[in-house]
Amino acid sequence: MKKFKGKIYKYIYTTDSGWGVVLFNLLDNPKKVLKLVGNVSNLNKDYIYEIEVEQFEDKLRNEINFKLINFKNIKDFKEQDITSLIKYLSSPLFPTIGKRLAENIVKYFKDDVLNKIINNKEELMNISGMTIEKSLILYKNVFELKNNILDFFIENNLSLDIYNKLLRKLNGDTKLFENFLKSDFYSFANKNKIYNFEEIDKISLAFGEQKNSDRRISWVVYNLVNKILFASSNTYTDIDQIKKELYKTTYIDINYPFQSIINNLLYAKENNILYFKDKKIYTKESYEDELYISKKMFEIKNLVPEIKYSDNEITKKINLVELYFREIKKDDTFKFNEEQLHSLKSFVNNNVLIITGGPGTGKTTIITAIIKLYELLYNKKNDDYAILAPTGRAASRIKEDFSDLTTSTIHKFLKYTGEDNFEINIQNQVSKSLLIIDESSILGNHLFSNLLKGISCLNKLVLIGDIKQLPSVDYGNLYEDLINSKLFTTEYLITNNRQSSDNDIPKLANSLWDGNELELNDLKNVIFDYSESQNLLIDKIKFYYEKFNTNNLMESITKVQIISPMYKEEFGINNLNNIIQNHLIKSSKFSLKKGNISFKQNDKIIFTENNAKLSLFNGDVGIIESIYKDKEEYKMRLKFLDRDIIIGKEVLKNIDLSYACSIHKTQGSEYENVIIILDQTNKYTNFFVDKRMLYTAITRAKKNLVILSTKETFMKCSSFLKESRKTTLVDNLLNIFKNKE
Q: Is the Cα torsion angle 627, 630, 632, 635 positive or negative in sign?
């Protein structure tokens, strides 16, 4: 580690994330320039800094560069730094001062110069060459620099990311920023969707918050409850769970009595940070989401329809929809089955309709049929309705089957801008009379609540999914709760249109769910490959992947997918991705690294976070078409099913390899060929993987399914079902319907 003093000479480039390259002029040797690489967004071109750097060799350019580790604005100089102090006071930070006057200032005050300028303002006019105008500039700039919030953040090792983010929100108003920092920064950060609680707490304490104040303890417990809900996907917890987990954190002194914490939490209750009801404890968001969903569902269900149609009129229109399908499918024998007919009639006769069915039962067909029926009956156009899905793959799958339909992810429809913010919201609504949501089983309470807030004039809502699949990653059990409330008409699609004499994948999925015994080795298009040998298993994974894969890179996205429930260990997702990557891609001109992951040309990748700026969302899968160097920066061209996009290194944190991925990440997608791996050597497999997870993984496969596992592990997982999530949405729904009807 080396230290230098100097100032920014030139910005070469910076990215939105703050990463960049600058040229740095040394204070004691102005002719020497260092090239700094790192987070340079907080370096002001006019300031003088002491920097800490690590030297590294850029072999491509055959030059020595320096990685920026830390920096501080130079404000305090020792006696031996007189030369530096004179250069500092004559720098552009102090216009009109100049070198000679700077020398006179240092000579007059001798030591502790900057503090003496602030504390002895009246003496400034005693300095040779000083004018009133110059003394005001000198005093003002030294005072501001000595009391700079940015410096305070740097000196106290506080988050510069939060500093930059909030200063942008406040349009650079440092006084207003300082007021928030010194009043109730916890609430301010929460309202502005800043969720790094460890950093928020550090900032609040640094600006005077007392460690055991009611406010701090309330927000500490709020943060803990949020983590509990995220881990469990429940919508509430209880005081025993809080007590059990709270003292494991570093936020609370182990000797601080729990009864005092209970007393502190009165503040959380009074300020709606937490909700307490029937010994259940909710965060503000989890409680209000359930309540809002319940009220809105009541409103939609009880709207009086503008037009009522007879069964005969509905049947006539359904016959016209059948004619449409015969034409687009080029099949003169096409007819809706009884379940589909009943679902279409239920759609007309109900404001809220829930449809559930397994793979191949015609859910995509029913979506298109509902739209066509809606257009015929109500004379509506595509601007009047929205077809949405929680994932990009689910949304695009509908469009693949019926290209004239417009579909979107929920995040894209709501114009997600990052950090749980949506441009379409309760203050800025979009008018839609019909809303259809596919893959509703993976829709969480919070996103659904935001969606309902963003739509006005909604009088018909259709939720389509598979009740047997995994619920959302977020808290809540929305789809199943709505069905279990028995307040909304629910149609069950059972007849499998994909079941054929040469494909037993649906048969396996349904038998597994129903608990029926099957002769596993007699199933068509299903291979159970049991292996006790770990080395043999790796060879089999490579064999099956290569067997099903295609040379067409875009087709490979949906051609074959490895599914593993775990990320770690030998047969976890991370290692499997490395194995397949090394097997398929022998060399690459350029590669970009993220930790232990190396991204190469032709790699299959997945986005793991929502990125509003790029309009890419969690679960979007694509191909690295190329990696190339643009001036000083490496970039990647990514190809997705609907478009190409170019990204820089700063986006790598949101990308993973996707030859193998988790069961959750595959939801909403289907693949021609699926390889499921259940690792009996991983201790978490037997209590983490249950019947619902296995059913979800199996139903991702359309043509061929390979299950690599021991028979004992497979049977154990298929006979185990986790407890339902703890939610109170059903109770809220029943209460609202009972009290208002």
A: negative
H/E stretch holding 465: strand 460-465
- Alpha-carbon distance of 540 to 545, in angstroms, equals 8
Instruction: Report long-range pairs for 628-637 (Cβ below 8 Å, ≥24 apart).
Output: 628/590, 629/590, 631/13, 632/12, 632/13, 632/21, 633/13, 633/15, 634/590, 634/592, 636/592, 636/599
Find residue 408's DSSP bridge partners: 388
Closest CA to 317 of 372, 241, 240, 276: 372
Considering the domain architecture, whether residues 322 and 461 belong to the same structural domain is answered as: yes
Structure pTM?
Answer: 0.81
Same domain, residue pair 214 and 112: no
Which strand (E) or helix (H) includes residue 696?
A: helix 691-698
Residues facing 237 on adjacent strands: 281
| Mean pLDDT of all residues in 535-559 | 91
Q: DSSP alpha helices (H): ranges in 549-638?
A: 553-559, 573-584
What H or E segment, with its residue span, contains residue 230?
Answer: helix 214-232
Specify whether 124 is located in the same domain as 269.
no
Q: Which domain holds residue 332?
A: 299-496
CATH of the domain at 427: 3.40.50.300
Is 189 domain-assigned? Answer: yes
Model confidence pLDDT, tens digit, residues 662-702: 999 999 899 999 999 998 888 788 778 999 999 999 999 99
Helix (H) or strand (E) holding 703: strand 701-708
The number of folded domains in the chain is: 4
Q: What whole-number distance in Å separates Cα of residue 682 and Cα of residue 699? A: 23
What tokens were used for 410?
């929920």
CB 371, CB 353: distance < 8 Å = no
Query: Phi-psi region for residue 331, left (φ > 0), alpha (ψ -120 to 50) or beta?
Result: beta
Angle at 517 (CA atoms; ends 513, 523), nearest 5 degrees: 90
